[in-house]
Description:
Layout (H helix, E strand, L loop, with lengths): L3 E5 L2 E6 L2 E7 L2 E2 L23 E4 L10 E4 L2 E4 L12 E5 L3 E8 L5 E2 L12 E2 L5 E9 L4 E10 L5 E3 L2 E7 L7 E5 L2 E4 L15 E4 L4 E6 L5 E7 L3 E5 L7 E7 L17 E3 L4 E11 L1
Antiparallel strand pairs: 1-2, 2-3, 3-4, 5-15, 6-7, 8-9, 9-12, 10-11, 12-13, 13-24, 14-23, 15-22, 16-17, 16-19, 18-21, 19-20, 20-24, 21-22
Amino acid sequence: MDLEKIIANGIEVTVSNGQIVSMRKSGFEYMHGGGKPDESKTDGDRKGWQNSEIVMFPVIGALQRYALLVDHQVCLMDQHGVARNIPFVVKEKEAHKITLLQSHDGITPIENQKYAQSTDNPQQLAWPFAYTLEKSVSILTRHDVTVTFTLTNASERAMPYEFGWHPAFRCMGPAEKGVFEYHGTKKPLTKRTQEDEGLLPSGGMSLLSTDKVTYSNQDTLRGVTLTSEGFTDITLWCPAAESGMFCIEPVTRHEHRLQDENYFHDGHQLLLPKQSATYRANIRLHY
């Protein structure tokens, strides 16, 4: 997919290979550019995670032995599932909105991008359910970008799954000046004192029963507020302070350390044949 841009209300959003790789307001960049084509990346884009955002489906996190048991069938499944490995095509485009479509027939083996990084990972993955995933990106106001996902079970049997979105943002200033706010609590991006624990150095945190997180950088006064609908929890993640980026991830289930092939035995989302589910995340830009 070539670079696709939508521009409205002073906001410019760029999409590449199904990922939002840039979100700019008044020339200021909010998204981490890890998913940009290599020739378009800045030095900052090359640090940290080599994606800008991915969809997590049908699992969130990694599974031991890359195995997932579904309807008495063991499927090969890598970290965060199969959707990150299946391309999107442009379904529709307007000045302020772009709609992308991903589909899987439930039969075709799925090439695993992580195999190129390590041959310990499966070369191909499997998901035995046909589905479609529509992803719409809309610029609604001079402050807001909304991303809406519509997942449809196109198979003839009930489909278990979990769903999440994994967007990455720039720190928008010095990492030590970054602060998250949720449920009236403030948490710095980096650890500042023994008493003032930050997201780093641990790197990740699950916020249960959370649908809103604000990040702001006290040096630049730039930031984002992510508000979700349809999801249940939010995960915060940052690989390292020097990466210059962090993630606010709305999910239907947070990741556990010891997930195995019985991932769905503890409960899961379920779509009946031809049934759809909608998930939405609104990103409010602070400037």
